Amino acid sequence: MPVFDLIGFDGDDTLWHNERVYRMGRERFRDILARSGVQASEEAVDERVNQTELANLRYYGYGVSSFVLSLIESAIELTGGRIPADDVRELLHLSKQMLTTEVELFDGAEEALARLAATHPLVLITKGDLLHQRAKIDQSGLGRYFRHVEVVSTKTEETYATILSRYAIEASRFLMVGNSVRSDVLPVIKVGGWAVHIPAALDWAHENGDLPAAGRDRCFALEHLDQLPALVADLGRVAGAPTRPPAEP
User: Fold this and answer.
1) What is the pLDDT of residues 148-167, one digit of tens each?
2) Do 31 and 83 fall within a single domain?
3) For residue 91, is it within any domain?
């Protein structure tokens, strides 16, 4: 078992609430469509938005801006191009509300980071709008626990391999913690790292997936962040070597 030289954390829906803001946005969107006379079920509207979002990831990436552009595109399609300008303006206002929503940490997030930062270098690896992610990091007050911060457009095997190469970390000595199987677990396992999956009560369906069959011995599932420091300590003890305190930057 490894002694980790670097522990990575996802931000959205791992350290702080995020998906519920998007759920609110979808609810507002359905209200706007109903006001415009769209006769469609909640499921049909959500499916259209999902399809549009996934098609637009290659153009806009992840985040609020991409989401709201997809809402506007979906509204144009669902109304046959008849959505009023005032409704488009309301969707633009919605984006600003989402971008300025107060960050709320998950219970135990700061305590877990504080304990682990005392023994390991930590890196935040989060995807989305650069300005928005930086603002959430600042507002969260968690930035002081991280040696490095990486805001990326997507999380793939190449993304993780590039980050590990930049910091001269062997994949076998890297642990990633996050709520997304697709983004925080599968690509890390594939490059030879370790992963901890902590599911959130609310998740975007696109981020769901099955835990890997191959490499399952390097993947762990926890219910809460406050269980993480004990797991890391146990892995270090099994390795037969103490965890190393982080070197000074």
Assistant:
1) 999 998 999 999 999 999 99
2) yes
3) yes
How far apart CA 224 and CA 81 sit, in angstroms, is 45
Q: Which residues contact 114 (CB under 8 A, 6 or more apart)?
A: 145
Within a domain: 140: yes
Is 109 a domain residue?
A: yes
194-197: strand order across its sheet = 148-152, 122-127, 6-9, 174-178, 194-197, 219-221
Inter-residue contact 33 to 203 (CB < 8 Å):
no
Q: Amino acid letter at 59?
A: Y
199, 136, 52, 206: CA torsion to nearest 10? -10
Q: How far apart are CA 26 and CA 32, in angstroms?
A: 10
**Cβ(124)–Cβ(140) below 8 Å:** no
Q: What is the per-residue pLDDT across 46-80, written as a single tens digit (0 to 9) for each?
A: 899 999 998 998 888 888 999 999 999 999 999 99
- Regarding pTM above 0.90, the answer is no
Query: In 3D, which of 30, 27, 36, 50 has the Cα closest to residue 81?
Result: 36
The C-alpha atoms of residue 196 and residue 210 are separated, in whole angstroms, by 14
Examine the fold and report which residue of 63, 81, 99 is the final residue of a domain before the chain moves on.
99
List the domain range (segments joined by +) for residue 156: 6-17+104-238
Q: Give the Cα separation of 93 and 29 in Å (integer).
A: 12
Structure tokens given for 76? 């144009």
